[in-house]
Each structure stands twice: as C-alpha cells, then as structure tokens.
Amino acid sequence: MRVFIAGATGVLGRRLVDRFAERGHAVTGLTRSAEGDAIVEARGGEPHRGNLFHPVSLARGAEGADAVIHAATAIPTGVRPSEADWRRNDRVRREGTEALTAAAAEVGAGLYLQQSITWVARQPDGSAFDENSVPHPTRVTQSALDAEYIAGRAGDREGFDVGVLRCGTFYAPDAAHTRTTGENLRKGRLPIPGGGPLGRRDAAISVLHVDDAARAFVAAAEAGVEGLWHVVDDEPVAVAALLRSLAERLDAPSPRRLPGWLLVPVLGRETVRAFTKSATTTNRRFREEVGWEPAYPTYREGLEQVVEAWQEEGFLVDGVGAEASG
Ligand SMILES: NC(=O)c1ccc[n+]([C@@H]2O[C@H](COP(=O)([O-])OP(=O)(O)OC[C@H]3O[C@@H](n4cnc5c(N)ncnc54)[C@H](OP(=O)(O)O)[C@@H]3O)[C@@H](O)[C@H]2O)c1
C-alpha cells in the first residue's frame, strides 16, 4: 500500500517511515526542511515538502495514498510551557486534522489513522478506564479529543475508514521527555511528585515504547479496520517505580518524594498532573481487533532497551551529570 505520513520526521514518524518501508509499503513523508527531507530519505521514504497549515501541499503529498496518518505534534518539550505553546499544539491537532482529512478525502484514501492519547479518558477518581469510558479532557487534552471527533466526522461524511490510536505515555531513547527525565535523575533533580507519605495511593500510568507505537500503526494500516483503540503495554506502572527503576539503571540517586503542589512552579501543572493522577488502561481491544502485541510488554524490558541505546550513544554514561548529583 501507499501511505502518507504527517509528522514523518518526529520521534514516532521516523519509526513509521522505517517500519512501513521495511514491510514493503511505499511511504511519502511530509517534511518542512532539507533536514527533514534527509531524515525521510535515509529511512526509505519519499519526502514531500508542505505544512499541515497549507492544505494544498497536503493533497499533493497524499496523491495515490491508500492510508493517511496524522503523527504530527507541537507538544512543548520545555519546562513550564506557556499558553501560546499549547495553542500551537492545539492548532496542529484541530486544524491539522481538518486539513489532513480533507486531503485524504480529495485523493480517495480508504483509511485515515489518527494518533491520540489515552489520558483524554483519565477518570477523575483515578480508576482504570477503557475505550467505552466517558472522556474527561483537560485544557491541554481537549484538542486531542476534538481531533478524534473531527477525524470521525470526516470519515462518516467522506466515506473513508478512521482508526484512532490513543497511545499511552511514550518513552524512547530519542524522545525529548525521556532524555530530560534521565538527565534530571542523574543530577538528583527529579523528585517523585506526590504520593506516599500520608498513605495515599501511588499514581500509576500506562506507558508505551515508541517502537511499539510504530508497530501498532503499521498493524492497524495492514489490518485495514476502523476503530478507537487504547495502545499501551501490558502492565500499568506506578510513577514512583518507573522513576526509581530508571534511576537505578543510570546509577543515579534514588529520587525522593515531594508534595505535588510544591513542584507546580518548577515542573508546571501538566507535568505534575501527569505524575500524580493515575491514568491506567488496557490494550485488550487493540490486541483482539488488530492482532498487535508489544515487543516491550512492560517498562522493565523497555527501559533496558533505552539505557542500552544511551550506553551505545555515550549519553548519560561515564559520569555525565553525576558530579552534580550531590
Ligand atoms: N503518548 C505520549 O506520551 C506522547 C508524547 C509525545 C507526543 N505524542 C504524540 O505522538 C505524536 C508524535 O510525537 P513525536 O514525539 O514524534 O513528536 P516530535 O518528535 O516532536 O515530532 C513532531 C513532528 O510533527 C511535525 N510537525 C509539527 N508541526 C507541524 C506542521 N505545522 N506541519 C507539518 N508537520 C508538523 C514535526 O515536523 P518538523 O520536523 O518539521 O518540525 C515532526 O515531524 C503526536 O501525535 C503526539 O501527540 C504522544
């Protein structure tokens, strides 16, 4: 099949180009720079210059595509993002989905896949949820939920299938937030927000190695079925266990706990929320309907791969950051 990928130069997108090409599919990747062209070409894809906010460029890039994929994001990677940062991300989600689904319709693609996030359905009481649970979006996740609806409505109107892959919290050796977490742990600067001391339950989350996310998109495209799916690994993990496990693998000091409210000025409200509110779900429906299973079934195997990749790269080894750990 031929696929057109928006976000082809990103952490997820690069893996999508790799994986689709490996499986013998023809890939066109949307790019915005010469650097982006090189990334796509090196992975066996064909770069197409354009922008999610220039609809004409999308229809040209999607020409002949059987499947169109939205894997673009402008999620801020810095500490304490501003309202303007979040608005940029909202635009990529809402306007980007409008434009990309219009391109899919124009070229007659049969399938449109949308990347979304599981925690749009996080329950206020922290209980586990699934695809049937009522969503509870926040300021930051509302646009992801809107994008799901925009995609679904476009599919109904234009007659193409829509698959929404709500992914768990991503991690990978090259993901900006995984690297920052590793660096801050090495420096002893990342506490475990909230939990514990007053007997409160530790927050737990469902996570996903980005390699498994890419495999999930390829599996969904090849299965050619539509649906709404939660794509996570097999075992939710307590945030405290996740951070301690990574610290241990990096020979970093074990992180201590600090009350969440105390950390809001340092980490920002969204990060503290992500670490202190449980968001656990299951991949059952995706496994059954698409036939995918994670290569990294839990964070243990996944973190092992992350740290091995960092060792090969020379990132966070040989004492880097250790001198500041006190
Ligand atoms: N589940 C999770 O924990 C989690 C975490 C982070 C992200 N995500 C999701 O995963 C997906 C990919 O994230 P990522 O980590 O791969 O992000 P990333 O590495 O920052 O990549 C972002 C991609 O989006 C592209 N992009 C941004 N604005 C664009 C625009 N206006 N037009 C065209 N392309 C644009 C970028 O292109 P350039 O290279 O040209 O900038 C890049 O290819 C997104 O859907 C995001 O919502 C999920």
What does this structure look like?
By secondary structure, the chain is α/β, with parallel strands linked by helices. It has two domains: 2-170 and 209-231, 3-Layer(aba) Sandwich (Rossmann fold); 176-203 and 236-281 and 296-318. It has helices at residues 11-22, 34-42, 55-62, 83-107, 142-158, 176-186, 210-223, 239-249, 260-267, 269-276, 284-290, 299-313, and strands at residues 2-6, 26-31, 46-49, 67-70, 111-117, 161-167, 169-171, 192-193, 204-205, 207-209, 227-231, 237-238, 257-258. Helix 1 (11-22) links the parallel strand 1 and strand 2 (26-31). Helix 1 crosses helix 7 (210-223) and helix 8 (239-249) packs parallel to helix 12. It is globular, with a radius of gyration of 20 Å. The termini are far apart. Residues 6-13, 30, 32-33, 36, 51-53, 71-75, 92, 115, 117, 167, 169-170, 175 line the site of NADP nicotinamide-adenine-dinucleotide phosphate.
Topology overview:
Blueprint: E1 2-6, H1 11-22, E2 26-31, H2 34-42, E3 46-49, H3 55-62, E4 67-70, H4 83-107, E5 111-117, H5 142-158, E6 161-167, E7 169-171, H6 176-186, E8 192-193, E9 204-205, E10 207-209, H7 210-223, E11 227-231, E12 237-238, H8 239-249, E13 257-258, H9 260-267, H10 269-276, H11 284-290, H12 299-313
Parallel strand pairs: 1-2, 1-4, 2-3, 4-5, 5-6, 6-11, 7-10, 8-13
Antiparallel strand pairs: 9-12
Helix pairs in contact: 1-7, 3-4, 4-5, 8-12, 9-10
The structure holds NADP nicotinamide-adenine-dinucleotide phosphate.
